[in-house]
């Protein structure tokens, strides 16, 4: 400890006005509890998934983040082996209870990610319900972490609990597989996509489908202005990010925005966790939360936040991918289950080389975000037509 | 997840030279495992002590930090009540074991702080021993967290283990009370201070005493150039930070540097954790680790790192204190055990208002540090004379 414990008057020059504090020439804004996020997700010692992919980026853009760890693992499960423990429902409950009793529970912003099992998720559900009942304007981004690319990586019994939690959520950020799992609708056509969004919007005002591969059915219905550039290599795959905001208290359809980004080949972990965190970090609803009409000519608060999150996440991925491409050959092998099985260390090295380069790319995270830089999501005119 | 799992060639423009990678115009340095730190200390959901005070600052200055949590609490113990659990020795052991097996253990830099009990500390000791035996150039900063201001806040049985661990440590950063506890020498005179440093240097090359109150005995022996400015308010208290580097393999005395900073009144938690992290982050030993001669005319690598850490820590404290001073009166009460006992929420509010403002003051953490800005530690000429 450097400071002693003598407690009397402050000793250095402080000049202040009602709005700012000046200490030795540096401005210090007064507390804004709106700049505090309670984040509940996994922790790994090494690498960047869950809280390790979410907390530092949110701190970089100015949030105090309260960090509750749902697991404490050595590394992410992509390495196939890991050590450590899951937090029990009782542990989580005791942490939330104490934070509540001594007035440390964030009233404004809540972020939840990977929760290991149904009992723990029930505890998080109760917390979300409590916070929402205390503050109807709570901004709760729920990332319903279930799986990816057709594979569940949680137990089945969390699915109904996530559905029950929809009514407390402000924003949800499922990937395409999670949308299918939560709605029961395979995303194979525009009408299926509309159907899935309608189901989710019954309970949640703001929905982002973080990534849908640009398959032929989607390519066919995508507005011309959102299509890949004509010059594109035919082999290049794309992912579509869709934001959909419903105006509360009306029967009108949601405002849908979308943007295509090139798929960066290779499996990178923590990308969804980073995207969700940045979405919450950049989300600033209108003063009246029921008002989700465009806050500029063409954007909603959600499409604005999604654009910032998509741009920064994609830039971090490019940065990471470029790093991985420069590693010695043995650290940047391609995914090949047979070769991996024959030589287990092969996969470990590849995984290590693909950990997100958040620290080295922190200038990307800290970029000030404005509309109109050519990276906005575009309004999908006519999305709901002919329904 | 945004990225899919198709795995073939990278898709974006990468221009590279042997030393750097350029992605879309941004430079990306190749991996440097020397820029990775394994940090082992406490975790709290709310507020900034232990890992929460150490990790973000190290990330801001460019380190990948691997984070192993020795406890998972709701908040720091200054709030008097807290929820959560301590990691068992078995849990810590399983995490280290897995990290080792899959090649994720940092080879270059290790930081340890609060370890809850002797069994857990034994596990950390074994780890430090293993890392040191694998890499004799390991930079291990051990903060022997025992207590402060005359009070132990760990159990007695960790003390002998910390002493056994000295031989693996590169730098230790005890406060004055921890120096007294570890050496058995009450710091009441210059010769006692010399004696304590000699005892610690028997095992450790670099010692920082992070803060000693400027009591009359110390004031009397302090070189004139280090004394408080003559204009100073007589009521202003000061703390001295001392760095002491021994040259390995010689019988000569250590090079001692020091700097005085004004005591900022009030009890702030996490300050020592922040200071230790920044010291390790700014420590760059000479290419030959046995060479700790001044790397400039007047500085050692240790005095350089201590100056950076002291300046940044003190600036964050000033920033935090200025913030606390602007809170409503009920959130910035003075320390008064009787009033606190009568109205428990009084202390909670004060604690909350004094959480370090690391996020809001991150520009301070990121400042590039150079010698000669008037904030260096000064060489204490004649410190060992007349011994």
Automatic annotation (TrEMBL), chains A, B:
Pfam families noted in UniProt: Phos_pyr_kin (PF08543)
Keywords recorded for this protein, A-Z: ATP-binding, Kinase, Nucleotide-binding, Transferase
One cellular-component annotation, GO: cytosol
Signal sequence residues: none
Boundaries of every Pyridoxamine kinase/Phosphomethylpyrimidine kinase domain copy: 112-210
CDD domains linked to this entry: pyridoxal_pyridoxamine_kinase
Enzyme class of the recorded protein, top EC level: transferase
A GO molecular function held by the record: ATP binding
EC number assigned by the record: 2.7.1.35
Coiled-coil zones: none
Biological process (GO), any one: pyridoxal 5'-phosphate salvage
Tagged with keyword Nucleotide-binding: yes
Family from the record: Belongs to the pyridoxine kinase family.
Family annotation (NCBIfam families): pyridox_kin
Protein name, UniProt field: pyridoxal kinase
């Amino acid at each position: 400890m450097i400071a002693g414990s003598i407690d009397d008057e402050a000793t250095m020059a402080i000049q202040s006005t009602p709005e700012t504090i000046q200490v030795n020439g540096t401005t210090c804004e007064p507390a804004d509890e709106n700049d505090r996020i309670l984040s509940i997700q996994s922790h790994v010692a090494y690498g960047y998934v869950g809280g390790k992919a979410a907390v530092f980026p949110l701190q970089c853009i100015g949030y105090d983040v309260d960090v509750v760890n749902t697991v404490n693992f050595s590394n992410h499960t992509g390495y196939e082996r890991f050590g450590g423990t899951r937090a029990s429902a009782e542990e989580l409950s005791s942490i939330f209870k104490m934070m509540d009793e001594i007035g440390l529970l964030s009233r404004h912003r809540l972020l939840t990610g990977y929760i290991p099992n149904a009992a723990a998720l029930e505890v998080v559900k109760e917390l979300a319900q409590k916070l929402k009942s205390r503050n109807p304007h709570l901004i709760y981004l729920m990332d319903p972490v279930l799986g990816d690319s057709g594979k569940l990586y949680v137990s089945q019994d969390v699915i109904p609990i996530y559905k029950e939690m929809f009514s407390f959520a402000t924003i949800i950020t499922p990937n395409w597989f999670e949308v299918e799992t939560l709605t029961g609708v395979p995303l194979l056509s525009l009408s299926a996509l509309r159907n899935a969004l309608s189901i989710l919007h019954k309970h949640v005002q703001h929905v982002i489908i973080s990534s849908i591969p640009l398959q032929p059915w989607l390519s066919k219905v995508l507005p011309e202005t959102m299509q890949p550039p004509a010059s594109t290599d035919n082999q290049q795959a794309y992912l579509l990010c869709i934001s959909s905001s419903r105006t509360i208290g009306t029967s009108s359809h949601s405002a849908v925005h979308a943007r295509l980004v090139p798929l960066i080949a290779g499996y990178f972990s923590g990308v969804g966790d980073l995207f969700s965190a940045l979405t919450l970090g950049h989300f600033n609803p209108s003063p009246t939360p029921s008002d989700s009409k465009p806050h500029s000519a063409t954007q909603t608060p959600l499409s604005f936040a999604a654009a910032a999150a998509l741009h920064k996440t994609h830039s971090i991925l490019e940065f990471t991918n470029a790093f991985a491409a420069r590693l010695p050959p043995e650290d940047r092998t391609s995914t090949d289950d047979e070769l991996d099985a024959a030589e287990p260390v092969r996969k470990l090295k590849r995984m290590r080389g693909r950990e997100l380069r958040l620290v080295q790319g922190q200038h990307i995270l800290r970029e000030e975000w404005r509309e109109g830089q050519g990276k906005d999501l575009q309004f999908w005119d006519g999305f709901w037509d002919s329904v």
